[in-house]
């Protein structure tokens, strides 16, 4: 068995190396794809406690673990104007002590249950998750419920977290991709709350334990929270535990933080320069508005994006990586939030090919918006998306996270199954319509991070206005 494994690894290494040197020619007599199996969506038991806590349970007997994901409404977009990104500091300190447990006790109890805690902040919500042994799920849910209801944010722990976050942020601010993301969010959203992508050094320095306790009390309330559990358990017993641990949790009297309004979709088609003196590369990021997760053409746009730049065999990758060698890993993504969808193209290129790369990206955007995909492109894109979804749903932590995200977006758990069906049934005319609506190059704003003179000189012949980022 070990010998077979070594041979397989050697073959994979050889193929990977050869692929980097020249295009691999596949045999022409390969058999056709087999019949496509429909994606089997999970069976979700939905409930709501009297205090407003939403509970989604997915019982999957077998592997003896349980994944818990909690989504709390209100992330970066809900942060105070004078504390942008403070949600990230909150997520890094929410498990550092409660009224009954120290940070050390929290870590030890979760480890004894076979897991640990992860917390992160998104634009629309804060996510807290853990995965524990099924035999220890009562201990896991006890710690989780204590954190969600009784986090105390000790001064010493907050001070340490602030120092670590400041160091991490300083490192991120030296990376062109981080600078491009921050600039693109500002260009897309202006003063809308979605423009915040990370804290600032100023907001980290100004944040206090008092700030965190106040924000925690405002957002961590049962009527603004979902608890998702996926794993080896009995639904009835799990609901008993949830009611026992969360039933006494009460929401404050004031109204919850409102959902951000849908931003304006107006963009300047221009290049916004983020100066990075001495850079030998230009980081290009193109952004435009796309559909929401629940829009009727969301799945069609996903297929269109897979054809354009969302897969390794996409048009963009084949063009500027495989054919021309301008960049190693170009990509495009369709990102969705509660009230906005964004299509982003990213490429890091050598200074001398800044202009030709920009030209080819525009070409591929416009080609997608004006020409129909081939049957092969359509089939490959749909199979990739459905297959990727099927693989992700095998991981319980991924499934619980996806379900929590659907709830945040105001969508039912059945949306997971609907997504796969709609992707599989997407037609070429539907892809054409989505591409025409969302992908034309003139609808994009462009961020270029690098040497300003190089960028201005390179892009001047393309006739796109070049502006300094305000």
Short structural summary:
This protein is of the alpha+beta class and 470 residues long. The protein contains 17 helices and 12 strands. The protein has 2 domains: 45-246, Cytochrome Bc1 Complex, Chain A, domain 1; 271-468, Metalloenzyme, LuxS/M16 peptidase-like (Cytochrome Bc1 Complex, Chain A, domain 1, 2-Layer Sandwich), CATH 3.30.830.
Write the layout of secondary structure elements.
Layout: H1 2-21, E1 45-48, E2 54-59, E3 65-73, H2 86-93, H3 103-112, E4 117-121, E5 125-133, H4 137-150, H5 155-172, H6 176-189, H7 201-206, H8 209-219, E6 225-231, H9 235-246, E7 271-275, E8 281-290, H10 298-310, H11 315-323, E9 331-336, E10 341-350, H12 354-370, H13 375-392, H14 396-408, H15 415-424, H16 428-438, E11 445-450, H17 452-459, E12 466-468
Parallel strand pairs: 2-6, 7-11, 7-12
Antiparallel strand pairs: 1-2, 3-5, 3-6, 4-5, 8-10, 8-11, 9-10
List keywords for this structure.
470 residues, alpha+beta, Cytochrome Bc1 Complex, Chain A, domain 1, 2 domains, 6-stranded mixed sheet, 12 strands, globular, disordered N terminus
> CATH first level of the largest domain: which class?
Alpha Beta
Instruction: Provide the low-confidence segments as ranges.
Output: 1-23
Instruction: Give the helix tally.
Output: 17
Query: Strands of the biggest beta sheet: in what spatial order?
Result: 1-2-6-3-5-4
Please bin the fraction of helical residues: 40-55%
């Amino acid at each position: 068995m070990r010998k077979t494994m070594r041979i397989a690894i050697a073959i994979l290494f050889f193929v990977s190396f050869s692929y980097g040197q020249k295009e691999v020619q596949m045999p022409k007599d390969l058999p056709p794809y087999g019949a496509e199996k429909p994606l089997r969506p999970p069976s979700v038991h939905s409930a709501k406690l009297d205090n407003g806590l939403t509970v989604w349970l997915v019982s999957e007997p077998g592997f003896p673990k349980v994944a818990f994901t909690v989504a709390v409404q209100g992330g970066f977009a809900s942060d105070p104007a004078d504390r942008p990104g403070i949600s990230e500091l909150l997520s890094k300190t929410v498990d550092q002590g409660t009224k009954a447990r120290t940070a050390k006790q929290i870590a030890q109890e979760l480890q004894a249950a076979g897991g640990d805690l992860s917390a992160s902040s998104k634009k629309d919500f804060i996510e807290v998750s853990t995965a524990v042994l099924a035999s220890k799920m009562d201990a896991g849910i006890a710690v989780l419920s204590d954190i969600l209801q009784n986090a105390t944010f000790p001064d010493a722990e907050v001070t340490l977290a602030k120092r670590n976050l400041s160091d991490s942020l300083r490192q991120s601010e030296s990376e062109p991709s981080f600078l491009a993301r921050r600039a693109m969010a500002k260009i897309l959203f202006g003063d809308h709350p979605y423009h915040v992508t990370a804290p600032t050094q100023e907001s980290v320095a100004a944040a206090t334990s008092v700030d965190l306790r106040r924000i925690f009390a405002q957002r961590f309330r049962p009527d603004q929270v979902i608890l998702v559990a996926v794993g080896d358990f009995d639904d009835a017993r799990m609901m008993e535990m949830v009611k026992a641990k969360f039933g006494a949790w009460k929401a404050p009297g004031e109204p919850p933080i409102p959902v951000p309004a849908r931003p304006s979709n107006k963009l300047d088609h221009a290049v916004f320069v983020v100066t990075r003196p001495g850079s030998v590369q230009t980081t290009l990021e193109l952004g435009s508005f796309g559909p929401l997760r629940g829009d009727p053409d969301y799945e069609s746009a996903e297929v269109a994006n897979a054809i354009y730049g969302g897969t390794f065999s996409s048009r963009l990758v084949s063009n500027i990586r495989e054919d021309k060698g301008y960049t190693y890993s170009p990509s495009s993504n369709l990102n969705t939030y509660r009230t906005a969808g964004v299509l982003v193209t990213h490429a890091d290129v050598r200074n001398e090919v800044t202009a030709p790369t920009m030209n080819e990206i525009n070409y591929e955007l416009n080609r997608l918006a004006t020409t129909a995909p081939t049957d092969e492109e359509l089939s490959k894109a749909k199979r990739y998306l459905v297959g990727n979804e099927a693989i992700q749903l095998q991981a319980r932590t991924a499934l619980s996270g996806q379900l929590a995200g659907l709830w945040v977006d105001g969508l039912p758990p059945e949306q997971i199954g609907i997504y796969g069906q709609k992707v599989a049934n997407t037609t070429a005319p539907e892809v054409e319509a989505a591409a025409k609506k969302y992908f034309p190059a003139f609808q994009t704003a462009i961020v270029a991070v690098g040497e300003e003179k190089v960028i201005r000189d390179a892009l001047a012949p393309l006739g796109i206005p070049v502006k300094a980022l305000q």
